[in-house]
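lol forgot to send this yesterday, sorry. struct tokens for the thing we talked abt
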């Protein structure tokens, strides 16, 4: 398979919203690992809007030390927009449109988006990101709904995009080639999924954490979290990622025969008081350092992983 072939592949682009790199490194993610090694990368954005604006312009989080590889082959850059400054980097998929979605739509791909954090609420005319897609499916809290503790600290299942894998995969498989984007809010506060349901303890911790996010203040005061409290909350994000890994495994199985190029990363991380603040939207290594996996699905004869056939093929 030659370099130019990558430009003809269908694409699955997934953002694990707010997922910290150290959480990903400690989680059990056998399906993501079939894509390739977990890379430690740096995002150009500290919150959802700028991080996705860069991503949709082809600017992936950049690996810090390791080289980006796809099927064992080193890749300087997967995508590069004509709007980017000139560079000597070797690019697999240069494009001229204003965003990846316009490029792929112009190539005749079916372009489908799905999301769950409020920047992707397609019913809100102030949101620019879902409008970049000809077809977008939003699952989640209305962006203009009152942000009360009762509305935010909730269990989540069917209102998570990855609970709708079959529908999203069927939409893709109706077309010869597809570009599927999924923003996954499962790893975003409140970190609730079927693997990480609320308890009395976590409900109370999450209410305090939301107040710390909102105030952007230090750890003093009534809402101060102990190291043990923070470990419980990071454990929720870890379990939320492991739930996403299972759902993505189902997606990979359904789409594997189409050999899509798959990129999975966080848009940004999350600070838990390491620099005195909580949340994201500000520069700190815990916010800018994110996990990244890349690969191509649909290998034949690859080793078995976690009871499933590996989905990765070698380019
Ligand atoms: Zn985000």
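and heres what i got for the seq, position by position
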């Amino acid at each position: 398979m030659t370099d130019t072939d990558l430009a003809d592949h269908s694409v699955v682009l997934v953002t694990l919203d707010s997922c910290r790199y150290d959480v990903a490194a400690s989680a059990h993610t056998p399906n993501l690992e079939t894509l390739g090694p977990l890379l430690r990368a740096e995002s150009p954005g500290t919150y959802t809007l700028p991080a996705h604006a860069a991503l949709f312009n082809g600017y992936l989080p950049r690996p810090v030390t390791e080289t980006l590889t796809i099927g064992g082959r080193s890749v300087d850059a997967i995508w590069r927009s004509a709007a980017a400054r000139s560079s000597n980097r070797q690019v697999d998929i240069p494009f001229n449109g204003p965003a990846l979605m316009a490029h792929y739509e112009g190539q005749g791909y079916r372009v489908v988006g799905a999301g769950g954090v409020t920047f992707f609420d397609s019913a809100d005319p102030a949101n620019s990101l879902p409008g970049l897609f000809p077809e977008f499916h939003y699952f989640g809290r209305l962006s203009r709904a009152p942000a009360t503790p009762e509305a935010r600290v909730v269990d989540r299942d069917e209102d998570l995009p990855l609970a709708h894998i079959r529908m999203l995969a069927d939409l893709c498989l109706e077309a010869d080639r597809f570009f599927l984007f999924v923003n996954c809010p499962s790893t975003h506060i409140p970190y609730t999924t079927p693997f990480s349901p609320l308890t009395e303890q976590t409900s109370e911790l999450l209410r305090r954490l939301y107040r710390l996010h909102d105030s952007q203040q230090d750890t003093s005061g009534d809402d101060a979290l102990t190291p043990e409290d923070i470990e419980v909350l990071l454990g929720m994000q870890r379990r939320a990622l492991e739930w996403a890994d299972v759902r993505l495994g189902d997606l990979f199985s359904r789409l594997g025969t189409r050999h899509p190029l798959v990129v999975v990363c966080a848009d940004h991380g999350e600070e838990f008081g390491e620099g005195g603040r909580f949340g994201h939207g500000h520069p700190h290594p815990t916010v800018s350092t994110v996990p990244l996996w890349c690969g191509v699905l649909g290998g034949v004869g690859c080793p078995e992983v976690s009871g499933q056939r590996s989905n990765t093929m070698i380019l």
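The two ends are 6 Å apart (CA to CA). anyway ping me if u want another try
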